[in-house]
Amino acid sequence: MKYSTLRIGTRGSQLALWQAEWVQGKLQKSHPSLKIELEIIKTTGDKILDSPLSKIGDKGLFTKEIESALLDKRVDLAVHSLKDLPTNLPVGLMIGAIPKREDVRDVFISHPDKKYKNLDDVPLNGKIATGSLRRKCQLLNWKPQLEIIDLRGNLNTRFAKLDSSDWDGMILAHAGVMRLGFSKRVTQIIPTDKILPAVGQGALGIEIRSEDTEIKTILESLISESTTYSALAERAFLRTLEGGCQVPIGAYARVEENKLVFDGMIGSLDGKKILRGHIHGEPAQCESIGNELAKSLFESGGREILESIRIV
User: Fold this and answer.
1) DSSP secondary-structure letter at 278?
2) pLDDT, tens digit (0-9, with 9 covering 90-100), for 259-308
3) Phi, psi values for residue 225, rounded to 5°
4) Which residues face 189 on adjacent strands?
5) How far apart, in Å, do the first and last CA atoms of the chain sit?
6) What does the CA dihedral 74, 80, 84, 88 come to, rounded to 10 degrees?
7) Active-site positions?
8) Which of 136, 177, 186, 267 is placed for a possible disulfide with 182 were both Cys, Cβ 3.0 to 4.6 Å?
9) pTM
């Protein structure tokens, strides 16, 4: 074996470290002779905290510096939240493993001083915080008079901001809330028929150098086949639709009874128009399924939505 020590590149947030340490623990168990170290790398997204992601663009914001370290061989693999990983990776890099995914859904966290515990009970003109165009679009489609507050920062920061605010609540990914032990603060798990999750939500993406067959072999024990099929379908869907601009896009693929079942959406920034589609097929055809659903939505009104967003 070429490697006696593995260096994992990761962001320094509490959630990123939890994820990297989870991978570290799993690999240590399957390869006890390996020494596995974490290398914390600060990304652009960690440095720019005073602007909405939609204003600065999220392409590689949380991955670019880590990918540079991977290409320069300063680290041997990188652990990302899969939803942060751009669908087109730099030449020389690939996803080496996608482990079993956590709950994909979003959750509503009510302000601790408010009596209501779900979004249906929030007043029509209530204030809900989120930093996601996807969530904003679907929230406004559900309850058009809501005031959406832009929210950035790690989970601890977001909870602190909520608790000291006059907001009615905020929306977060269930997976991150569970991983960091905030489950007791969840007041509603939002069904996917109301808000579809982000592409790759709840899953980790372990990125490696394409030619590094030894690392690829080391990671094999972490791979979840069903999560990989689902994630590849969602990423193909996003790659086909997004076209390089910020677009409210949601996707949820899963393997049920040996079939890949996929729901996808694309919406306008104001939430007034949402297109949803459904498709199913063979898991091995996951990327073709994602492409097909994207093209179907594009042809049934998605083109107009994309054009209106590009004008903005």
Assistant:
1) E
2) 999 999 999 999 999 999 999 999 999 999 999 999 999 999 999 998 88
3) -65, -45
4) 107
5) 53
6) 60
7) 84
8) 177
9) 0.92
